[in-house]
Write a structure and sequence with these properties.
Blueprint (H helix, E strand, L loop, with lengths): L1 H32 L3 E2 L5 E5 L9 H9 L4 E5 L6 E6 L2 H11 L3 E3 L5 E3 L1 E5 L16 E4 L5 H10 L10 E6 L2 E6 L3 E2 L4 E2 L11 H13 L8 E7 L5 E4 L6 E10 L3 E6 L5 E6 L4 E4 L1 H5 L2 E4 L4 E5 L7 E2 L7 E5 L3 E9 L27 H25 L6 H8 L6 E5 L14 E6 L2 H9 L4 E3 L12 E7 L8 H14 E12 L4 E2 L2 E2 L1 H4 L5 H10 L45 E2 L9 E2 L11 H6 L4 E9 L2 E8 L1
Parallel strand pairs: 24-25, 24-27, 25-26, 27-28
Antiparallel strand pairs: 1-7, 2-4, 2-7, 3-4, 5-6, 8-18, 9-10, 10-13, 11-12, 13-23, 14-19, 15-18, 15-23, 16-17, 16-19, 17-21, 20-22, 28-34, 29-30, 31-32, 33-34
The protein binds zinc ion (ZN).
Zinc ion (ZN) binds next to loops.
Cofactor: Fe(2+)
Protein name: tRNA (carboxymethyluridine(34)-5-O)-methyltransferase ALKBH8
EC number: 2.1.1.229
Length: about 625
């Protein structure tokens, strides 16, 4: 009796939990993906958690779905944590709805995944629109025989380290060897006056001659980089330095296939499958303008059918699955360039650009342009994704908001997706942001928010009891503008009112405490998969090619010490290059973070101290940010 009773009780508890989760899944789909579910039965179900982005492959999901009836189509969009299934009849989809909802399946890496199904009227899936390979790109399948592949792989002596002929390095995400010329990751260039003795390995010679004769390549390369990628390894998105190498760059994939992502500066991404024993040839636009990189992950999204071997991955969403990565070794051959590059892409050409990455703006107009290009446009583009990865409010900000007296009027300047607007229901909170898309998300969530610039907030002076500015002010390009932003915040405060300001700190670790932002990177497999598939690779800025205006890759920072916050005095920054923030988690774009507060939270005060009408109540380091609470006198 007792036992029964208890299990009944448990059951209803589980059921309640399940219902809550299902409703949550429905909301998430609507809010972040714009997918509308319906409460009546249709032939089509959206399967939340049953997606490639969640580590669920077609081979795992399809048999489960088939148990409930005849599956007409299973659409698995790349990198998404959901999929769509269409059954032949509504009866069958109803059966699936009832029997699979809340059921667990085991994902590709053994993780348990609970499915949540909801009916939809139609399949909503935004085609990327770009169905062609980048211009100038070619993938030649089966360019060498399995015997040659074996021979090439066996010829590499990884245990020897630096040999007479080669320079070997262990990079963060892969092993490399260089022949012909050493590639310097600090400069993304080779020392043209210092060729390595011995040239390219002899074994490559006949192969290269053959490719020349058969017309796959036009120039004989004189530099070889061998990379070895284990599953989970990758290479950051980059463009090979124009001035370093000639037009034609070729890469032979050995040992295993891999997906390489090509990105255009307009945001288009084309994932390209490089099968084992294939040759990738990059010329023209694909070599000069598009970045290429390999996302560090253990599975790739690939076409399921055998007919799609090389080429674009997302050409058929109804045919996607996951493929486990193996150890891939690539032979990348390049020809060192002896004269400056005169390509047709001056914006990304180091030979044709005198000043490399953006310099510190000298006028307000320049500053505005810079912010427009590197901050506002980026946020506008990433709004949806940005929002879907930023749910969790930071505790100390919550604490600040909860401590305010009930009835307080509070402005959140740069409110993003509004994650702080609903924290304390006793407050009257209003948010603003430069990004229309983020403000739209706030409004969907029934928050008061409007679009405006943080330098000119259309709110009456002294009308707020408190203000918060979370991770906003560091986006302004000059010290003057940051001061104006703080001053504007203070203007809104009534005397005695408090402001909480967070600015992103360059060092994401302080007193040995990693920010949650960084720790958040170490996620469960499924989630990490989803995130890293979008992100350009983190953590190794030295390998980046600075490419202005080109999203998806990061710039190295030549002189970081120049960016210490210096109050209003920015004159000494002239001619300095600006660091561009590489994404730490899920952005696929770079954000401009032009200041650096070195090691000492007191420096956060400098900007604030230029204002006479405030007192600083508290400064601290939290979540990778320097923080200050100030009070208007
Ligand atoms: Zn060029």
């Amino acid at each position: 009796m007792d036992g029964n009773h208890q299990s009944d009780h448990k059951h209803s508890k589980t059921e309640k939990k399940f219902l809550r989760k299902q409703i949550k899944a429905r909301h998430t789909l609507l809010r972040h993906e714009g997918i509308e579910t319906v409460s009546y039965a249709t032939q089509i179900l959206v399967v939340a958690n049953g997606g490639l982005g969640n580590g669920v492959s077609r081979n795992q999901l399809l048999p489960v779905l088939k148990k409930c009836g005849l599956v007409d189509a299973l659409l698995m969009p790349p990198n998404k944590p959901y999929s769509f299934v269409r059954y032949k009849t509504t009866e069958e989809s109803k059966k699936a709805y009832i029997s699979l909802n809340g059921k667990g399946i085991v994902g590709d890496v053994g993780q348990k995944i609970i499915l949540y199904l909801n009916f939809v009227e139609k399949v909503q899936w935004k085609e990327s629109g770009h169905q062609a390979l980048p211009p100038g790109l070619m993938v030649v399948e089966e360019i060498i025989s399995p015997e040659d592949e074996k021979m090439l792989l066996e010829s590499i002596n990884w245990t020897e380290g630096n040999g007479k002929q080669n320079i070997q390095k262990s990079l963060k995400h892969r092993r490399v060897k260089h022949f012909g010329y050493e590639f310097h990751y600090e400069t993304n260039n080779v020392d043209k006056n210092k060729p390595l003795p011995g040239g390219l390995p002899e074994i490559c010679d006949s192969i290269l001659e053959k490719w020349l004769k058969e017309g796959y390549i036009k120039h004989k390369p004189d530099q070889l980089t061998i990379n070895q990628y284990e599953p989970g390894h990758g290479i950051p998105a980059h463009i090979d330095t124009h001035s370093a190498f000639e037009d034609e760059i070729i890469s032979l994939s050995l040992g295993a296939e891999i997906v390489m992502d090509f990105k255009h500066s307009d945001g288009v991404t084309v994932p390209v499958m490089l099968p084992r024993r294939s040759l990738l040839v990059m010329t023209g636009e694909s070599r000069y303008l598009w970045t290429h990189g390999i996302t560090p992950r253990k599975f790739d999204t690939v076409q399921a059918s055998e007919s799609h071997k090389s080429g674009i991955i997302i050409s058929d969403v109804g045919d996607l699955t996951l493929s486990k990565r193996g150890i891939r070794t690539s032979f990348t051959f390049r020809k060192v360039r002896q004269t400056p590059c005169n390509c047709n892409y001056p914006l990304v050409c180091d030979s044709q650009r005198k000043e490399a990455p953006p310099s510190v703006p000298e006028s307000d107009r320049e500053a505005t342009q810079l912010e427009q290009e590197y901050v506002h446009r980026v946020y506008e583009e990433i709004a949806g994704h940005f929002s879907s990865t930023r749910h969790t409010p930071w505790p100390r900000i919550v604490e600040f908001l909860k401590a305010l007296p009930s009835g307080s009027v509070v402005a959140d300047i740069g409110c993003g997706n509004g994650k702080y607007l609903g924290i304390n229901k006793e407050l009257h909170m209003i948010g603003c942001d430069r990004s229309q898309n983020l403000v739209a998300i706030c409004r969907e969530r029934q928050y008061q928010a409007f679009v405006c610039d943080a330098l000119a907030v259309p709110i009456r002076s002294e009308s707020c009891d408190a203000c918060i500015s979370i991770a906003v002010i560091h986006h302004f390009a000059t010290a003057e503008r940051r001061v104006v932003a703080v001053r504007e915040l203070v203007r809104l405060l009534r005397p005695g009112g408090k402001a909480l300001i967070y600015v992103w700190a360059m060092e994401q670790e302080y007193n040995k405490q990693k920010s949650k932002y960084l720790r958040g990177n170490r996620n469960s497999q499924g989630r990490k998969e989803e995130i890293s598939s979008d992100a350009s690779v983190q953590e190794s800025p030295v390998e980046q090619t600075p490419d202005v205006g080109n999203q998806g890759s990061a710039c190295s920072v030549p002189s970081i010490s120049d960016f210490q916050e210096g109050g209003c005095n920015s004159s000494k920054f002239t001619n300095s290059k600006l660091p561009i923030h590489t994404n730490r988690t899920s952005f696929h774009s770079d954000l401009l973070v032009p200041w650096h507060l070195k090691g000492n939270p007191a420096k956060t005060n400098l900007t604030c101290q230029t204002l006479s009408n405030v007192s600083i109540l508290q400064t601290y380091y939290d979540q990778g940010n320097w923080c200050v609470i100030l009070q208007k006198l």
